[in-house]
Write a structure and sequence with these properties.
Elements lengths: L3 H23 L3 H25 L5 H20 L6 H14 L2 H21 L6 H99 L1 H30 L7 H16 L2 E6 L7 H20 L5 E9 L2 E8 L11 H12 L3 E6 L5 E8 L5
Parallel strand pairs: 1-2
Antiparallel strand pairs: 2-3, 3-5, 4-5
Helix pairs in contact: 1-4, 2-3, 3-4, 3-5, 4-5, 4-6, 5-6, 6-7, 6-8, 6-9, 9-10
């Protein structure tokens, strides 16, 4: 498990090795310096080979180089008369724990500890209780420190990955909402266009029927006006009534065409939106959306935006994937409820979206309420007096 942070820490540890190398070269007998130089050169070569070829994908060759690296360090320890070389083996132990699993790293640390003691015995070092205690404490401290650093680095990396994933998911969700909005606008235009074509056809049929009927009655009146004036007058009155009825039907159709933007049922629009959100974001959304009277467009927009904002906040801030939506009307009041099962909160600090939603609801004489507790999700409740479409 190696990332940028672990690489940086490994470089720091190898800088420590370089300092130790300088100390050892300056404080040992001249006869051993050549062997020290060769050993340290081999360590540098092994380090760069490991970094270049085996740092990301540990392999058998990488493990062999690791063993050779340890043997060279033990050789330096054997020749060193200053005692500073213990730092090399402690750094090696730390690097092993850092770049391998903790279990494997600790196993290598224990092996190095035992071999180090054997090397000291071969050097005829005096291993009394004090020296053994100091060496044991050094190894233990190196292991504990490296494990702690590794844990912190891994946690930092995980936090960065989670933050990046959350940003990407939020960005995807916002793009999905934009696409949905465009889709709904296009769908509304298509349905309105079809409805207008249907109404235009009705006008055509109505006008054609009226004109045909009136023409026949006028022709009959012309023929009867001398022979039977009363019947001719009756035909004329019938034609006049046909014209009035036809004009009334045409006016209704023209009004429908003029108000074509309101032909869609509001509850159906919300259902379509919810289904698209469920499909595109893999959410569990339960909903009960009752048919609404023809509402003022401003009120429809408030409820629609409240639904969007509530789901967005539930996903982005509450980390929720489950929602429940209810919309009904009774006692001349619209009642809208949106509940999620996210993280929730104890102290509520409304952002721009919630403040804007609350302001709009209260601007049309409605009531806005938001309830939550930690780990119980959030519930948004809106009540608005019904204002029918003019």
């Amino acid at each position: 498990m190696e990332d940028k942070n672990i690489r940086i820490f490994s470089v720091v540890m190898n800088v420590i090795n370089l300092i130790v190398a300088v100390v050892i070269l300056n404080n040992n007998i001249i006869e051993n310096r050549t062997m020290f130089l060769v050993a340290f050169s081999a360590l540098i070569i092994i380090y760069f080979i490991n970094i270049k070829k085996f740092s990301k994908k540990p392999s058998k060759e990488g493990n062999i180089l690791g063993v050779i690296n340890t043997l060279i360090i033990l050789f330096i320890v054997f020749l060193d008369s200053t005692g500073v070389s213990i730092v090399l083996i402690l750094v090696s132990v730390g690097t092993s724990i850092l770049n391998k699993s903790t279990k494997v790293g600790l196993s290598l640390a224990l092996t190095n500890y035992i071999v180090y003691m054997l090397v000291l015995i071969l050097k005829h070092e005096a291993l009394n209780l004090y020296n053994i205690s100091i060496i044991t404490i050094n190894f233990t401290f190196a292991c504990v420190l490296t494990i702690a650093v590794k844990y912190e680095l891994n946690e930092k990396t995980k936090a960065q990955l989670i933050s990046k994933e959350l940003e990407e998911r939020t960005s995807e969700l916002e793009r999905a909402y934009e696409r949905l909005q465009d889709l709904y606008e296009d769908k509304e235009e298509i349905i309105v266009l079809k409805e207008r074509n249907r109404i235009a056809g009705e006008i055509h049929d109505t006008v054609g029927h009226i004109l045909t009927t009136v023409t026949i009655q006028l022709e009959a009146s012309k023929r009867l006006i001398k022979k039977d004036p009363d019947l001719a007058l009756e035909k004329l009155n019938s034609a006049q009534q046909q014209v009035k009825t036809g004009l009334s039907d045409i006016r209704k159709s023209v009004r429908s065409l003029k108000d074509g933007e309101h032909l869609l049922d509001f509850a159906d629009i919300l259902k379509t939106f919810v289904e698209e959100v469920k499909k595109n974001n893999e959410l569990d959304i339960e909903y009960d959306l009752a048919a609404m009277p023809k509402l003022d467009k401003k009120i429809e927009n408030i409820i629609y935006r409240a639904l969007q904002e509530g789901i967005t906040n539930g996903i982005r801030h509450g980390k929720s994937n489950r929602f429940k939506i209810n919309l009904n009307h009774e006692n001349n009041t619209i009642q809208f409820t949106l509940q999620d099962w996210g993280q929730g909160f104890d102290k509520f600090k409304p952002g721009f979206g919630i403040n804007n939603m609350k302001s709009k609801v209260e601007g049309v004489g409605g009531k806005f309420n938001i309830e939550s507790k930690i780990n119980t999700g959030v519930t948004i409740k809106i009540e608005i007096p019904i204002v029918e479409e003019n």
